[in-house]
Amino acid sequence: MESVNQVMEPVSKTAQWTAAARAMESERPDRIFDDPYARLVAGETGFELLERYAGSAVVPFVLVRTRYMDDAIVRTVKERGIRQVVLVAAGMDMRAVRLTWPEGVTLYQLDRPALLETKAALLAENPPRQAAGAVSESHSVPVDLAAGWQDELHAAGFDPGQPTLWVAEGLFFFLPEDVVRDLLGSLRGLSAPGSVLIGDMTSRATLHNPLAKGFMRVLMEDGNPWLFGTDEPEEFLESCGWATEQLLQPGEEGAHFDRWPHPVPPRSMPNVPRSFLFTAGVKPA
């Protein structure tokens, strides 16, 4: 197992940490989601990092984010009839087999080659069963999201003429702002009318929060620094071609799930560390 984990890049290892958090939640009797493969894809690395990052407020956010996105994904493909889904920085996500999908959905999982190779190697030990409701067709597409990646997605069969559901989970805070802007603009450029973007962001204040200084230092030491945050996510998304349809802070109605332990500060209160969960549509030209 350790030889598999050694090929992982630093940022990619956080995907295994996220999987470890999901595994712990999935094993609770009162779980808010069920990912039966999370422990497998977390590997030893995921649980080591879970212990290393213990004490941060990020685990409750991961749990709330997972459930929010699960619900938003299922609702979007059902209600809007979207049949083309792209997981941008798919990580160790197992939604292809653990969610119930309508017939005819094609899923594209984009991430770094080393991560996708590690994920495949871990799953080879216990291949997921194609349960009823699993996605009809799934493609892993190795790319560098900070560089050119559109050609690889097209080569895998992506059709820009069809509405797309883009899911960007736990990605933007690891990228510089100019890369985030370019990426969001590229997604918008590939989006037919009716396309939807589901994602999350952190606030700029989070990056400079004295209470998070220890966690941020450990992330830096591990090669996973958080680089981007915005206190005005609606305006930022709009500037990149996306119109916010829903934006919630963890703890608000629709983003609580009995897992968020902190009070929710009003948006009018400045310089407060925040996390954001959003659903956005294509901004009209």
What's the arrangement of secondary structure elements?
Layout: H1 2-5, H2 10-26, H3 38-52, H4 58-80, E1 84-88, H5 95-98, E2 106-111, H6 113-124, E3 137-142, H7 150-155, E4 165-168, H8 177-189, E5 196-202, H9 204-207, H10 213-221, H11 233-239, E6 242-248, E7 275-282
Parallel strand pairs: 1-2, 1-4, 2-3, 4-5
Antiparallel strand pairs: 5-7, 6-7
Helix pairs in contact: 2-3, 2-4
Characterise the protein shown here.
The protein is of the alpha/beta class. It has helices at 2-5, 10-26, 38-52, 58-80, 95-98, 113-124, 150-155, 177-189, 204-207, 213-221, 233-239, and strands at 84-88, 106-111, 137-142, 165-168, 196-202, 242-248, 275-282. A seven-stranded mixed β-sheet has the order 3-2-1-4-5-7-6, with helices on both faces. β1 (84-88), α5 and β2 form a beta-alpha-beta unit. α2 crosses α4 (58-80). It is globular and about 45 Å long.
The average pLDDT score comes to 91
Order of helices and strands: HHHHEHEHEHEHEHHHEE
Largest sheet: 7 strands, mixed
Please state how the strands of the largest beta sheet are arranged side by side. 3-2-1-4-5-7-6
Residues in β-strands, percent: 15-25%
**Low-confidence runs (pLDDT<50, min 5 residues)?**
1-8
Q: Given the structure, what is the number of helices?
A: 11
Helicity, as a percent range? 40-55%
Radius of gyration: 18 Å
DSSP E strands, number: 7
Oligomeric state of the chains in view: single chain
Structural class: alpha/beta
Euclidean distance between termini CA atoms: 50 Å
Name the shape in a single word.
globular
